[in-house]
Specification:
This protein is mostly helical and 79 residues long. The termini are far apart. Helix content is 57%, strand content 0%. It is built from 3 helices and no strands.
Length: 79
């Protein structure tokens, strides 16, 4: 009857260590690749609300009748 795997204890230790190292390296590589592919750095062409209004390439959404919307409607510019 043929058996699979190493028969001596020292060979088993080397075999197991190599196998576990390969699994850890593969998991690490996969995690790094997935995180690299999923994270995107988005650069917007403005840094504050004034630039946002000047550029005009994006839209601003606020919930209806919210405090933020009221501040934009009746707010005054303070220096």
């Amino acid at each position: 009857m043929a058996t699979q795997g190493p028969q001596m204890d020292s060979c088993r230790v080397v075999y197991l260590t190599t196998y576990l190292s390969a699994v850890v390296l593969l998991a690490s590589y996969s995690a790094t690749l997935i995180s690299f592919l999923t994270v995107r750095l988005v650069e917007v062409p403005f840094n504050n609300l004034e630039e946002f209004l000047i550029v005009g390439t994006h839209k601003l959404g606020t919930p209806e009748d919210s405090t933020v919307l009221t501040l934009f409607k009746v707010g005054t510019k303070q220096h």
